[in-house]
């Protein structure tokens, strides 16, 4: 099959295809870890934060989860909050695939791969967020289907494990394939990635829907037990994902040779405009239902927005989130957002932070406050929890940086098989980053 | 750095050489830092060992394998808590379905049941853990929003009544559905149990339970040797490992041998009634048939086997 699709070079043997791909991976590693001084500073800072997080996690495994501020009343905290946001980010990362393929927008194709890269990093972050939340990470193998005991299809958590891992594999395949083809200087064969792109669109929706089902399927938690939860998740993912991609594109435009046309970012901003309105509308609808009905169903929302029984730990968080979301939305609607100015960067940051709170602490914690028997026990993350979470973000950004760097090199032809074969083809600007030919002896 | 002279790159190109050296040094340093960051893992308690790691799910263990596991757990209790314990494994009895009823007119909120649970089930001493929460409720309704589980005054207080809540041993247990790895399940006699050596501690069951009946071992339980209850069973009151879920089992190590739950024996007012729901002559059946009993959160469809009633 594979050989039949390859167009020009006279049928390379299987062995050489494998070797060539391994060679690509080896050179890709070299390119991705090579850069200017600010690249090394950035990577060292991220590694340092990741190490602090790893150390905090190791302490937590040793001493028990007592080092977190979670309790039997608030049994999930910052970790699961961050998990929920990262799943949204991963789903949203692929959302830009939709205009590219469903509406045949040619210019979007180039940046689809950025979305996939964000998705890969975000999925890794969400997986790590769950792993650090386990009381017994040493028993992870109980979760492996076939070896452990997989309570599928009953437990929504097993569904989530399947869709998250599947999503990671699909995106790794798409990114790997597109980059490799570009590296070889060949046109990607649509048969080998278009079906996966469509699968990943469907799959992106599924990961966030199923993550919402984790919560909204629990009858004992009225705050989560609403059919609007999954649509709300999707709407906010359509904001946080594209916003994160816009930020990534800005960084790449400033620091790499990879140049984007302005159109894709503007398409993304139009997506964000609509999604943010839908998101805020659904939030308003939810708040109306809760408060107008009142009674015990509103008690979590009461705690979240106004505090109850003298406890009001989440009130500043939630109002900060609402202000950030609304101001971010307004900024996105200004004409300046469509120009390449800092307005859109500020808008992106506002919306990302706003949604991180809304889909994180603002969603998970009130599910537990008041408890199922209406006890009010508050929660705020411990230093260890902050360290671990920061470590996870540092790790995610580290992976994202490496992938984006690789994408920039391949797409600006700094990293290409042709250059290594024909010595006379030298990139015009002779970038200092890639002196890879020296290794092909 | 030029790309044109590729023949002897390392000698020709000191920039590459230095960069490579720095990269290697950086990677080595990184690995060392990684090892240092993970060092706390080396101090893990001895209960994390190869046998424990490879142990199969309780329901897949043969009787011989069970014997080995129980022996190991007894040795661990000796090593870590310095007590001689026996770990039994009483099976569910035929034609038995356990049910519990509680007379709210009689309960005075003394929390003797919670204390008995604390001792019987080898709970962590520092956290004063118990599977039973007693709520002080306002007369005139069953509204937990007006309830208070942390009251600290002589009981019974005027205008109040008391409502102990523990695991309801639901027929449709949301915790069992939630568990991703079948570490918790419903036994034939209706008791929902946890394999403490299989649970990964994700706490999804704790989020799913509508009755706040589940507890997590946030740290290793501390119990002085002389206070440990040595009469233990694998699925109920043995000392739990760190990082796993636990819950009320209606004291199955007692009740499956024909004895009564510790909380019932401790109750000074006789508010508690325990028995076999399948036995038409049992006291619990009499209560259900002759009192106007109710269950908590009936609308959730969990079908609890824990019934409350008032004496008029």
CA distance, first residue to last residue of chain B: 94 Å
How many domains comprise the coordinates of chain A?
1
In CATH, what is the class of one domain in chain B? Alpha Beta
Most extensive interface, residues per chain? A-B, 70 and 70 residues
Helices of chain B, by number, come to: 10
Total count of helical runs of at least 4 residues of chain A? 16
CATH topological fold name of one domain in chain B: Alpha-Beta Plaits
CATH superfamily of chain A: Formate dehydrogenase/DMSO reductase domain
Q: What is the CATH architecture assignment of one domain in chain B?
A: 2-Layer Sandwich
Largest sheet of chain B: 3 strands, mixed
Family (chain A): Belongs to the NrfD family.
Subcellular location (chain A): Cell membrane
Keywords (chain A): Cell membrane, Membrane, Transmembrane, Transmembrane helix
Protein name (chain A): Putative hydrogenase 2 b cytochrome subunit
Describe the structure.
Chain B: GO terms for molecular function: 4 iron, 4 sulfur cluster binding; metal ion binding. Chain B: This is Tetrathionate reductase subunit B. The complex is a heterodimer of chains A (441) and B (312). Chain A has 441 residues and is mainly α. Chain A has one domain: Formate dehydrogenase/DMSO reductase domain (Formate dehydrogenase/DMSO reductase fold, Up-down Bundle). In chain A, 67% of the residues lie in helices and 0% in strands. Chain A contains 16 helices and no strands. In chain A, helix 6 crosses helix 7 and helix 11 crosses helix 12. The radius of gyration of chain A is 23 Å and the shape is globular. Chain B has 312 residues and is α/β, with parallel strands linked by helices. Chain B has a domain of 151 residues: 2-Layer Sandwich (Alpha-Beta Plaits), CATH 3.30.70. In chain B, 28% of the residues lie in helices and 14% in strands. Chain B contains ten helices and eleven strands. In chain B, the strands form five sheets. Chain B has a three-stranded mixed β-sheet with strand order 10-2-11, covered by helices on one side. Chain B has a two-stranded parallel ribbon with strand order 1-8. Chain B has a two-stranded antiparallel ribbon with strand order 3-4. In chain B, a hairpin with a 5-residue loop joins strand 5 and strand 6. The longest helix of chain B is centred in the first third of the chain and has 24 residues. Chain B is elongated. Chains A and B meet through helix 3 and helix 7 of A and helix 2, helix 6, helix 7 and strand 7 of B.
């Amino acid at each position: 099959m594979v050989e039949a699709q390859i167009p020009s070079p006279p049928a390379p043997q299987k062995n050489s295809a494998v070797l060539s791909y391994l060679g690509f991976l080896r050179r890709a590693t070299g390119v991705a870890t090579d850069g200017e001084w600010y690249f090394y500073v950035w990577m060292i800072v991220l590694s340092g934060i990741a190490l602090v997080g790893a150390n905090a996690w190791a302490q937590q495994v040793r001493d028990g989860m007592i080092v977190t501020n979670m309790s039997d009343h608030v049994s999930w905290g910052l970790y699961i909050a961050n998990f929920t946001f990262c799943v949204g980010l991963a789903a949203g990362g692929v959302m830009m695939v939709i205009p590219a393929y469903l509406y045949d927008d040619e210019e979007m194709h180039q940046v689809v791969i950025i979305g996939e890269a964000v998705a890969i990093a975000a999925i890794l972050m969400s997986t790590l967020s769950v792993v650090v939340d386990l009381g017994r990470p040493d028993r992870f193998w109980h979760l492996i289907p076939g070896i452990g005991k997989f309570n599928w299809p009953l437990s929504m958590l097993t569904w989530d494990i399947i869709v998250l891992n599947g999503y990671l594999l699909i995106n790794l395949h798409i990114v790997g394939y597109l980059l490799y083809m570009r590296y070889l200087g060949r046109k990607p064969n649509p048969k080998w990635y278009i079906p996966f792109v469509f699968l990943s669109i469907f799959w992106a929706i599924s990961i966030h829907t199923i993550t919402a089902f984790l919560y909204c399927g629990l009858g004992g938690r009225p705050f989560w037990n609403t059919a609007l939860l999954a649509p709300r998740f999707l709407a906010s993912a359509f904001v946080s994902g594209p916003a994160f991609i816009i930020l990534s594109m800005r960084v790449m435009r400033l620091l790499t040779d990879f140049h984007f046309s302005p159109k894709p970012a503007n398409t993304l901003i139009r997506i964000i405009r609509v999604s943010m309105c839908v998101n805020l509308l659904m939030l308003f609808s939810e708040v109306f239902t809760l408060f107008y009905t009142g009674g015990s169903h509103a008690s979590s929302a009461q705690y979240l927005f106004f505090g109850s029984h003298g406890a009001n730990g989440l009130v500043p968080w939630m109002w900060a989130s609402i202000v950030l979301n609304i101001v971010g939305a307004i900024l996105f609607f200004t004409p300046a957002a469509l120009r390449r100015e800092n307005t859109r960067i500020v808008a992106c940051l506002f919306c990302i932070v706003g949604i991180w709170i809304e889909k994180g602490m603002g969603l998970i914690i009130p599910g537990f406050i008041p408890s199922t028997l209406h006890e009010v026990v508050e929660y705020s993350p411990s230093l260890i929890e902050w360290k671990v979470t920061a470590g996870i973000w540092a790790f995610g950004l580290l992976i994202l940086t490496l992938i984006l760097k690789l994408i920039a090199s391949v797409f600006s032809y700094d990293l290409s098989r042709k250059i290594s074969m024909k010595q006379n083809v030298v990139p015009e600007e002779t970038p200092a980053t890639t002196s890879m030919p020296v290794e092909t002896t | 750095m030029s790309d044109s002279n590729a023949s002897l790159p390392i000698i020709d190109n000191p920039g590459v050489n230095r960069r490579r050296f720095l990269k290697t040094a950086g990677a080595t340093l990184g690995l060392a830092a990684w090892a240092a960051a993970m060092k706390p893992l080396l101090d893990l308690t001895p209960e994390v060992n190869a046998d424990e790691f490879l142990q199969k799910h309780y329901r897949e263990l043969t009787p011989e394998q069970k014997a080995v596991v129980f022996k190991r757990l007894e040795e661990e209790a000796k090593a870590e808590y310095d007590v001689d314990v026996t770990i039994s494994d009483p099976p569910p009895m035929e034609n038995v379905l356990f049910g519990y009823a509680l007379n709210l007119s009689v309960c005075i909120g003394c929390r003797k049941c919670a204390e008995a649970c604390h001792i019987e089930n080898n709970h962590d001493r520092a956290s004063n853990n118990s599977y039973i929460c007693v709520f002080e409720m306002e007369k005139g309704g069953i509204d937990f929003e007006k309830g208070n589980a942390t009251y600290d005054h002589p009981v019974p207080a005027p205008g109040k009544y008391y409502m102990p809540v523990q695991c309801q041993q639901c027929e449709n247990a949301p915790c069992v559905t939630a568990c991703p790895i079948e570490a918790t399940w419903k036994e034939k006699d209706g008791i929902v149990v946890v394999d403490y050596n299989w649970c990964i501690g994700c706490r999804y069951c704790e989020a799913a339970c509508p009755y706040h009946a589940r507890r997590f071992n946030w740290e290793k339980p501390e119990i002085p040797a002389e206070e440990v209850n040595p009469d233990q069973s694998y699925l109920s009151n043995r000392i739990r490992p760190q990082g796993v879920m636990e819950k009320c089992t209606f004291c199955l190590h007692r009740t499956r041998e024909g004895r009564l739950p510790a909380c019932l024996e401790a109750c000074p007012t006789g508010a508690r009634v325990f028995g076999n729901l399948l036995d038409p002559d049992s006291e619990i059946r009499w209560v259900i048939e002759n009192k106007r009993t109710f269950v908590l959160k009936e609308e959730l469809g969990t079908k609890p086997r824990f019934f409350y009633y008032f004496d008029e």
